[in-house]
Design goal:
The structure is a single chain. The chain is α+β, with helices and mostly antiparallel strands and 162 residues long. The protein has a single domain, classed as Aminopeptidase. 35% of the residues lie in helices and 33% in strands. It has a seven-stranded mixed beta sheet, with helices on both faces. The longest helix is centred in the middle third of the chain and has 15 residues. 24% of the residues are buried.
Length: 162
């Protein structure tokens, strides 16, 4: 298993690089698009990473392998629920258990932080992600909504107890 850690405030450039890689690799997996966020200023990226890294109810987790970041997810706790979003693993590293480790780490943090349930949205038809989440105890709620205004894809909500 590769080290999983939180992204620190001063690592905003690494956060930007990883997020842009994720958006370029799997554009249908996210609500944001590469084009939308690639044009954001350094100050914007610094603010995003600072917001998530300095607030104890939020975090950005990364999977690091020999100095390279190969996976990420973001999470926040609100009203006793852990919300996980923007999860991504480098395509060359999928199938190695990194997603399972990353998900488990964030869910453990949620439990310790007082959350009782965890929820996320996954693009319908993303069988690999749905399988990962199902193995972790998630179930579909039946809630669905459009991925983005410019997309024909829907996302479905999945939840699990912590």
């Amino acid at each position: 298993m590769q080290p999983i850690r939180t992204l620190e405030v001063d690592e905003w450039e690494l956060g930007r690089q990883l997020r842009l890689r994720a958006l370029a690799d799997t554009p249908d997996a996210f609500r944001s698009t590469y084009e939308d966020v690639a044009v954001e200023s350094d100050a914007w990226w610094q603010g995003v990473v600072e917001d998530f890294s300095s607030d104890p109810s939020r975090g950005i987790w990364v999977v690091e392998d020999d100095g390279d970041l190969v996976g990420m997810t973001l999470g926040n706790i609100h009203d006793g629920r852990l919300h996980i979003f923007s999860m991504w693993i480098d395509p060359g590293r999928r199938g190695e258990g990194l997603g399972q480790g990353l998900l488990g780490t964030v869910m453990a943090w949620g439990r310790v932080s007082g959350a009782t349930t965890v929820e996320l949205w996954v693009t319908e038809g993303n069988a690999e992600a749905e399988s990962l989440f199902t193995r972790a105890g998630f179930q579909k709620t039946g809630d669905r909504e459009p991925r983005r205004e410019d997309s024909d894809l829907d996302v479905v909500k999945m939840v699990a107890p912590l």
